[in-house]
């Protein structure tokens, strides 16, 4: 019953679906049922009166026709053990969290397929701040299920199509996709790039720098998606370019905001006034970079964020090094790299 789970539950309930939202907190469940507000995560949003909250997972899943997973990505594997005994047979599972598993390098869809076999697995992703969505600002997202789950004879019966229709409302507009990998990669990588944009903004740089990071970040997404079997054009859609643009442009984004605070020189433990906040790009910098290194995809912006967040690299020096990398072609097709004249100025200065 976090912010995005509540927003999606409200969207589906407003679209006329019977929705049960599950979570761990009795108090939050009671508040949603009694006052139609999620007092912990989005107190100012009026929730549909038909939305039912529960802490009983068996009740939440009883008769479900689709199950949406909306927790931080690193908690997903444990959550599977909680839901496994109660899942209706063959019910479609929809990832609404964004990330790649640390250690295994699994896309979250692979994780679900491993932990909960026998279910069609898809993802809902796009430029969707939870609060704006729940307040009814026009919002669009992509719903992707792998091509294996497309019904070629009756496409409207495919899970992506059925779910898109079920969740559509005047303000919420889903688009269908059969490129699950491309959609997942967009969601996982954009958060890391948003931290980079935030860091550069916090360090005092301006719009040119941010636009360069967004565009070159999209290039990193494309190569990772393609290397894993996704499609480049998916990266130019809502779940890639759309979400990247949103997240890299607004302090509403927790990823961008973390970057800004770090760029301004705030110590990590003092960011967000010391409160625990879900920042997927921070944990996913590790999994994205690890996966990219394993399969030989160059992701210099993600590497820079990883080095600053997790290897103690100096922020200013790391970004100077990023800008002074060998000069290369755009797009990357041309295998030519030229030494950058400023590279000599980006070695560590003696203390
Ligand atoms: N917020 C947004 O605008 C959007 C978020 N997302 C994605 O949605 C995912 C969730 O983020 P968001 O809703 O914002 O995060 P929030 O911090 O708002 O909520 C997180 C939720 O996850 C629950 N949770 C945490 N750990 C566990 C666990 N081990 N088992 C079960 N439940 C757990 C929390 O429960 P409790 O309160 O009990 O701790 C809480 O209900 C992320 O991957 C994020 O990238 C995607 C699009 C938009
Ligand atoms: O994914 C999001 C919007 O699409 C939310 O972004 P943040 O997690 O950075 O707040």
Automatic annotation (TrEMBL):
<feature type="binding site">
    <location>
        <position position="253"/>
    </location>
    <ligand>
        <name>sn-glycerol 3-phosphate</name>
    </ligand>
</feature>
<feature type="binding site">
    <location>
        <position position="128"/>
    </location>
    <ligand>
        <name>sn-glycerol 3-phosphate</name>
    </ligand>
</feature>
<keyword id="KW-0560">Oxidoreductase</keyword>
<feature type="binding site">
    <location>
        <position position="130"/>
    </location>
    <ligand>
        <name>NADPH</name>
    </ligand>
</feature>
<feature type="domain" description="Glycerol-3-phosphate dehydrogenase NAD-dependent C-terminal">
    <location>
        <begin position="179"/>
        <end position="316"/>
    </location>
</feature>
<keyword id="KW-0443">Lipid metabolism</keyword>
<dbReference type="InterPro" id="IPR036291">
    <property type="entry name" value="NAD(P)-bd_dom_sf"/>
</dbReference>
<comment type="similarity">
    <text>Belongs to the NAD-dependent glycerol-3-phosphate dehydrogenase family.</text>
</comment>
<feature type="binding site">
    <location>
        <position position="243"/>
    </location>
    <ligand>
        <name>sn-glycerol 3-phosphate</name>
    </ligand>
</feature>
<feature type="binding site">
    <location>
        <position position="278"/>
    </location>
    <ligand>
        <name>NADPH</name>
    </ligand>
</feature>
<dbReference type="InterPro" id="IPR006109">
    <property type="entry name" value="G3P_DH_NAD-dep_C"/>
</dbReference>
<keyword id="KW-0963">Cytoplasm</keyword>
<feature type="binding site">
    <location>
        <position position="24"/>
    </location>
    <ligand>
        <name>NADPH</name>
    </ligand>
</feature>
<protein>
    <recommendedName>
        <fullName>Glycerol-3-phosphate dehydrogenase [NAD(P)+]</fullName>
        <ecNumber>1.1.1.94</ecNumber>
    </recommendedName>
</protein>
<keyword id="KW-1208">Phospholipid metabolism</keyword>
<dbReference type="InterPro" id="IPR013328">
    <property type="entry name" value="6PGD_dom2"/>
</dbReference>
<keyword id="KW-0444">Lipid biosynthesis</keyword>
<keyword id="KW-0520">NAD</keyword>
<comment type="pathway">
    <text>Membrane lipid metabolism; glycerophospholipid metabolism.</text>
</comment>
<feature type="binding site">
    <location>
        <position position="255"/>
    </location>
    <ligand>
        <name>sn-glycerol 3-phosphate</name>
    </ligand>
</feature>
<keyword id="KW-0521">NADP</keyword>
<feature type="binding site">
    <location>
        <position position="98"/>
    </location>
    <ligand>
        <name>sn-glycerol 3-phosphate</name>
    </ligand>
</feature>
<dbReference type="InterPro" id="IPR011128">
    <property type="entry name" value="G3P_DH_NAD-dep_N"/>
</dbReference>
<keyword id="KW-0547">Nucleotide-binding</keyword>
<dbReference type="Pfam" id="PF01210">
    <property type="entry name" value="NAD_Gly3P_dh_N"/>
</dbReference>
<dbReference type="GO" id="GO:0047952">
    <property type="term" value="F:glycerol-3-phosphate dehydrogenase [NAD(P)+] activity"/>
</dbReference>
<feature type="binding site">
    <location>
        <position position="126"/>
    </location>
    <ligand>
        <name>sn-glycerol 3-phosphate</name>
    </ligand>
</feature>
<dbReference type="InterPro" id="IPR008927">
    <property type="entry name" value="6-PGluconate_DH-like_C_sf"/>
</dbReference>
<comment type="function">
    <text>Catalyzes the reduction of the glycolytic intermediate dihydroxyacetone phosphate (DHAP) to sn-glycerol 3-phosphate (G3P), the key precursor for phospholipid synthesis.</text>
</comment>
<feature type="binding site">
    <location>
        <position position="3"/>
    </location>
    <ligand>
        <name>NADPH</name>
    </ligand>
</feature>
<feature type="domain" description="Glycerol-3-phosphate dehydrogenase NAD-dependent N-terminal">
    <location>
        <begin position="1"/>
        <end position="145"/>
    </location>
</feature>
<feature type="binding site">
    <location>
        <position position="98"/>
    </location>
    <ligand>
        <name>NADPH</name>
    </ligand>
</feature>
<dbReference type="InterPro" id="IPR006168">
    <property type="entry name" value="G3P_DH_NAD-dep"/>
</dbReference>
<feature type="binding site">
    <location>
        <position position="254"/>
    </location>
    <ligand>
        <name>NADPH</name>
    </ligand>
</feature>
<dbReference type="Pfam" id="PF07479">
    <property type="entry name" value="NAD_Gly3P_dh_C"/>
</dbReference>
<feature type="binding site">
    <location>
        <position position="280"/>
    </location>
    <ligand>
        <name>NADPH</name>
    </ligand>
</feature>
<feature type="binding site">
    <location>
        <position position="190"/>
    </location>
    <ligand>
        <name>sn-glycerol 3-phosphate</name>
    </ligand>
</feature>
<feature type="binding site">
    <location>
        <position position="4"/>
    </location>
    <ligand>
        <name>NADPH</name>
    </ligand>
</feature>
<feature type="binding site">
    <location>
        <position position="254"/>
    </location>
    <ligand>
        <name>sn-glycerol 3-phosphate</name>
    </ligand>
</feature>
<feature type="binding site">
    <location>
        <position position="41"/>
    </location>
    <ligand>
        <name>NADPH</name>
    </ligand>
</feature>
<feature type="active site" description="Proton acceptor">
    <location>
        <position position="190"/>
    </location>
</feature>
<keyword id="KW-0594">Phospholipid biosynthesis</keyword>
């Amino acid at each position: 019953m976090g912010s995005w789970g509540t927003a999606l539950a409200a969207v589906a309930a407003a679209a006329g679906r019977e929705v049960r939202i599950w979570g761990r907190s009795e108090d939050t469940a009671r508040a949603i049922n009694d006052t139609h507000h999620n007092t912990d995560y989005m107190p100012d949003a009026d929730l549909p009166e038909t939305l039912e909250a529960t802490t009983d997972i068996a009740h939440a899943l009883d008769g479900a026709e689709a199950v949406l997973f909306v927790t931080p990505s690193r908690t997903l594997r444990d959550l599977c053990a909680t839901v496994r005994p109660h899942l209706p047979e063959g019910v479609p599972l929809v990832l609404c969290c964004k990330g790649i598993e640390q250690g295994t390098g699994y896309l979250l869809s692979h994780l679900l397929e491993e932990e909960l076999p026998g279910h069609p697995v898809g993802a809902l992703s796009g430029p969707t701040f939870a609060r704006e969505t729940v307040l009814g600002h026009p919002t669009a997202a992509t719903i992707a299920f792998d091509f294996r789950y497309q019904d070629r004879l009756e496409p409207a019966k495919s899970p992506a199509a059925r779910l898109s229709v079920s969740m559509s409302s005047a303000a919420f507009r889903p688009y269908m996709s059969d490129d699950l990998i491309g959609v997942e990669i967009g969601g996982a990588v954009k958060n890391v790039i948003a931290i980079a944009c935030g860091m550069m903004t916090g360090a005092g740089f301006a719009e040119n720098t941010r636009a360069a990071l967004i565009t070159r970040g999209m290039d990193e997404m494309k190569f990772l998606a393609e290397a894993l079997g996704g499609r480049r054009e998916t990266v130019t859609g809502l779940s890639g370019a759309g979400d990247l643009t949103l997240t890299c442009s607004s302090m509403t984004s927790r990823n961008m905001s973390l970057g800004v605070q770090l760029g301004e020189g705030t110590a990590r433990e003092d960011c967000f006034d010391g409160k625990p906040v879900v920042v997927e790009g921070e944990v996913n910098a590790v999994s994205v970079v690890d996966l990219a290194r394993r399969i030989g995809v160059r992701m210099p912006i993600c590497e820079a964020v990883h080095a600053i967040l997790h290897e103690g690299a100096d922020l200013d020096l790391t970004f100077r090094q990023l800008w002074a990398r060998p000069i290369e072609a755009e797009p990357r097709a041309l295998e030519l790299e030229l030494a950058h004249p400023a590279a000599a100025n980006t070695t560590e200065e003696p203390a």
